[in-house]
Records
---
Amino acid sequence: MQNYLDFEKSLAELEGKAEELRALARQDPEMDISEEAERLDHRASEMLRDLYAKLTPWQKCQVARHPSRPHTLHYVERLFNEWTPLAGDRNFAEDHAVIGGLARFEDRPVVVIGHEKGTDTKSRIERNFGMARPEGYRKAVRLMQMADRFGLPVITLVDTPGAYPGKGAEERGQAEAIARSTEMCLKLGAPIVSVVIGEGGSGGAVAFATADRVAMLEHAVYSVISPEGCASILWKNAEKMKEAAAALRLTAQDLLQLKVIDRVIEEPVGGAQRDPKEAISRVGRAISDMLGGLDGMSRDDLRAARRRKFIEMGRVGLA
């Protein structure tokens, strides 16, 4: 069953009418309504294309959070072979909001790390809705250290509203854990590429996305704070999230222009949730291309180029 967003109500009506006609035809095979159903399908297809060609920043936030959008485990299942998950930070606990392990990508051994939001109520609670605690980032550091030791490329998939802000997480050193993960990304002597597949929220996303190459899906978002959080701080009113989303410049298109990311991965018409298989394939091709562009670089060259990239980010030229 298709989940529709608020701005897709008119589309839902059209597609609903077309499905009703098909249901009537199934009940009475003598009814000839195929032409009318096809006409509605055509109108719905045009409406879908028009809607997604001019999404506002807030609408892109809604798409990035769509419950049917493919999550990290979906990408792992389709893009990687010999997936061997590794658990625990060897210090406190296992964090189910972060998955990581060894795998093969195009027959090449790699380390995969990503946020996982879950797909139903039970798994979302278990995964803490993709909001990692300190042990999740420390697990990521452990895996990156292993990748560095054996020269394995690191692939990270980012999809989080942000790091978990709970009392226990803060008591166990949330900020320090995020900083260590970001630092480890910079210290890696192996290639690291990152894809923002949904939400890229705050330092919780940067901890995995301080990479040689960073890509975003066309309707993903990446920002220092959520629009609701920004609106609450600036206007003392979370209902101002639409204005906040526009001001944050959190879309893939804005961030490519600002040179915060390196590429935008086009999504199927209607977003990744409409055709998950095709969206995942496109991400796979982008990862392959990004890794290929880093082949042959020495450990020192990788580190130097990565540091230079982030140091120069946002630099304002002097007249």
Note: Residues 34-53 form the longest helix (20 residues).
---
Amino acid sequence: MELKFLGGAREVGKSGILVNTGKEKFVMDFGIEVQEGKRPIRPPLDLDGVFITHAHLDHSGFAAGLYSMGYQGNVYATKVTFDLMQMLLEDSLKVQHKKGMNAGFSSQDIGRMGKKEKIMNFKQPQEIGSSTVELFSAGHIPGAASVFIESRGKSVLYTGDIKFMESDFMFGADIDVQNVDVLISESTYSYKDHPDRKKLKNQLLTVIEDTCHNGGVALLPAFAVGRTQELLMMLENIQFPIYVDGMGIRAAKIMLSNPESFLNSRGLSRVFQNCTKVRGNRDRKDAVKRPSVIITTAGMLQGGPVSFYISKLATRKDSAMALTGYQVEDTPGRHLLETGIYSNGEIEVRPEFPIHFLDFSAHTDRSHLIDFYKKTNPQKIILVHGDRTEEFAGQLREMGFDAHAPKNGESLKF
């Protein structure tokens, strides 16, 4: 079996892995680098299948590009992943066109991909040629999967993005695989453990309540898929108006139509029904006129309605912002945390309101990764999807693991 790393090696973004079993060829994930639209290395197109672990664009954002190149085979994922992918790819196409970028695929290519979708459920192995492929729940967001491939006596497990601890919104990962030959593992937070989520939630609620009681607006930039819905569930008992703006509205509707894909669909339905869905600038202006909570895209501040709110609230010392997710290097969110300046190419301001970073990550952390490696007992660990993969690989080798951090374009035979 041979692996080639097409993207996502020694970086967070544009994930893509080619698996050659000697009989079949598969691609696992095919995303983009969201900030600049960079793509993975082009794979051969005589593939026997493409597996998408989840809908986030760094894992799915160039899947339709394969069909633009001429790929005609099937793409496999869970149902809710396909539903969310459709939404995110359409939006990505629109955003890239607006920026004057060449997306590399069209709405017709999204349609071509849609005709080749094959829904897979967790823990239901599927035979493809001489290979058996099985998906396991990865936690992270609704529909997120880890991919396990067995072929000709060899096995590989790719975690995708993974979260082991249950949250208010999501189940923890459920992966029943041991003694795998190669484990390809995300390592976003290989360097630290996350703080207690209940304490974080209490801190967030304190920020919101203090801000609103002081007459300000609590601004919560959030990823449309996953974080928006989790925040809504945390705010169910808040006594101030809650506004939701951007693509998180449509994502919530998709999730509510797939209630088995997350915890407590009744709770999300209840709070979603009671919040105000922002439909345009009139609603946005109303939202900032009174004490309120605004959940809006984008989570890394790189687009969406968030720039409107930052510009309107920039001089409001009574207001506050809470960033609750990972801020990739070179994004406006990371730049704001490091410099105090918000710049997105259209506006540049230094907000006077306090900015809080609360680590509500949908990724697992260092201790849980190491525990998982011990449980899975792989012959070899390959680290991807992280800024510190080389450092972590060295630490794992000191613990007795055979760990590696490949570069994009490298291959591994086993």
Note: The mean pLDDT is 96.
---
Amino acid sequence: MSEIASQFKSEFLRQFAARGCLYDCTDPEALDALFARERVTGYIGFDCTAPSLHVGHALQIMTLRRLQQAGHKPIVVIGGGTTKVGDPSFRDEARPLLSEAQIETNKAAIRRTFEHFLTFGDGPSDAIMVDNAEWLDRLEYLPFLREVGRHFSINRMLTMETVKIKIDNDLPFSFLEFNYMIMQAYDFVELYRRYGCRLQSAGSDQWGNIVSGIDLGRRVENAQLFGLTTPLITTSSGTKMGKTMSGAVWLNPEMRSPYDYWQFWRNTEDGDVGRFLRLFTDMPEAEIARLETLQGAELNEAKKILATEATALCHGRAAAEDAAETARRTFEEGAAAEGLPTVEMDWSAGEVSGERGWTLRQADTIVKMSGLATSRSDARRKIGEGAVRINDVVITDWKKEFSVDQVDPQSGAFKVQYGKKKIVLVKPV
């Protein structure tokens, strides 16, 4: 157990720190005492800016899971209200405003993300999910300014990192966005009033907003509230966690299949295996300590365990084991493997007509349609590197022509592979 973890008496903070999840907290001694003597209700907010959360949110979701596992009560706050304003944190442009219909669609999709991570219900430590639009939409402007706005110092708000970066770099920063920190602070107070919530958790970049909520709770309710932050995760090579060539690693299966999600974790850098097992799985410390000492081919087995355990939490055990088996068959047996991500390709408008009247497609187009390349020029570059296989054959000529008769007979699709680990089925329609 780490030196920091040993300083805590409560089971939750000891384990949370030991697994590398703790970045900072307000009044550590008082928060530790609170966890040691009573069931703590804590919340994390998630705005509805997209129809899915992504792997960058995974540590926050795991924080709620850790709370529940330790016998405390987690609250998932869906930001139906705050999404209408938009968090300005670390963005070089104003966040596009979404329509009410878009927010409702995103909200419905995001709710499903938590099904496998948390147990919801009416029990003492069962999770609940609320939408901050329930109270934010009903606020009247002048009463809100008088009750809440008067407690915020513009001078102090201008020193907060999220604001300071915008101003120092002359970036767009609207009055609407400026209100975000006030709304988030008010969320904390409202959750304290409704549910006795004493803790807000978030990534370390949200520290200023958390402290604002704690200060507002003290001023308007004379309540002692607490904040806890998690580290912003980067990989061993210094890249942002979840930053991939193909974009965000979404948590909803409609936006990223369980197989692709499994592959994301399977591709973890060697130096991150132990850390990610602690952060993103429930595996016990003794087993993690054993796995992170493995080298070479054995370390690849540890990565597969990480992939399966992380996928099980997000998509369920059955989907995780199916993804692991698909990967095994694909890479160990060379099978087309049902369960690989499949994309449909309009075959009717072919580029070339064959001698027998076939409609033909060139290799670069098939690779582009697979999603493994961002453009046809990118596909040609990958082919030129010798990194592309179609139906298990290395392709070196981007002009190579394919007909529908050449699809893999097992899958009815072209199996397109880039490198050793990225495989997609492209199905002609």
Note: The chain has three domains: 3-230, 258-333, 342-428.
